[in-house]
Amino acid sequence: MLTDPVFKGHGWVALVLIVALLLDGTLTQVFAQWLMTPLFTGVPQVTLIALVMIALILPDEAYIVAIAAVLGLIADSFYTGMLGVDLLLWPLLIYVVRQIQPLIPQTVLYVGAVVILTLTAYLVANYFVARFLGATSVGFVTLVANHVGPGLTVNLVLFALVYAPLGKLLRSLRLEEQD
Fold first, then answer.
1. What's the CA gap between 66 and 77, in Å, rounded?
2. Please, what is the end-to-end C-alpha distance for the chain in angstroms?
3. Rounded to the nearest 10 degrees, how much is the dihedral formed by the CA atoms of 132, 137, 141, 146?
4. Per-residue confidence at 10, pLDDT binned at 50, 70, 90?
5. Whole-angstrom Cα distance, residue 115 to residue 100?
6. Coil, strand or helix at 61
7. Residue 26 has pLDDT above 80, yes or no
8. C-alpha dist (Å) from residue 87 to 106, 170, 179
9. 85-129 per-position pLDDT tens digit
10. Residues ≥6 apart with Cβ < 8 Å to 98
């Protein structure tokens, strides 16, 4: 409506997402010897976790899908070997999360469940895109055992670490907007 306050925390959201994107690359490099083995590949997805939390906790951030597309392009440019995969998947997943956001309570369990479902959908969709493009020939069972399971484990630990500080920051941005 015309009297609704306009969200003014776009700069903070951008800063959080840039830090998350840099943290993805840093964590991958620092912990690569433990996270990236032939039988265990757990890739940190801090940026996707932050995008999901922003989509759930800050419903007034109108540009989050566009921001997800830009960050997907940046992530593809720096971290993946296939340009366009994250550019396609991240905005699509965040759009779906935005659509179900009114139904999700703002508790750690529900936000965590949405994060887990989003990460699972991302990992599986990423596999199917790579399979379609001929970039992998790994079977689906091997994918689940060696990539999805370990990836969810790593990202669940990361979610547990970032939920409290990031949730507090996002809630304070939402409260600032209401003042």
1. 17
2. 17
3. -110
4. confident
5. 13
6. coil
7. yes
8. 27, 24, 35
9. 999 999 999 999 999 999 999 999 999 999 999 999 999 998 888
10. 55, 59, 64, 65
Angle 135-71-110 from CA coordinates, rounded to 5°: 95
Handedness of CA 138, 139, 144, 146 (dihedral sign): negative
Instruction: Find out whether 67 and 89 touch, Cβ atoms under 8 Å.
Output: no
77/29 Cα distance (integer angstroms)? 16
* pLDDT value of residue 3: 58
Secondary structure class of 36 (helix, strand, coil): strand
The pTM (predicted TM-score) of the whole model is 0.92
User: Measured between alpha carbons, how far is 39 from 61 in angstroms, rounded to an integer?
Assistant: 39
**Residue 162 pLDDT class (50, 70, 90 cuts):** very high
Cα(160)–Cα(151) distance, rounded to whole angstroms?
A: 14
Is 179 a residue whose pLDDT tops 60? no
Structure tokens at 135: 């970039």
Structure tokens at 122: 């991302």
Residue 67 has pLDDT above 70, yes or no: yes
Give me the long-range contacts of 127-134 (CB less than 8 A, separation at least 24): 129/82, 129/85, 129/88, 129/89, 130/82, 130/85, 133/82
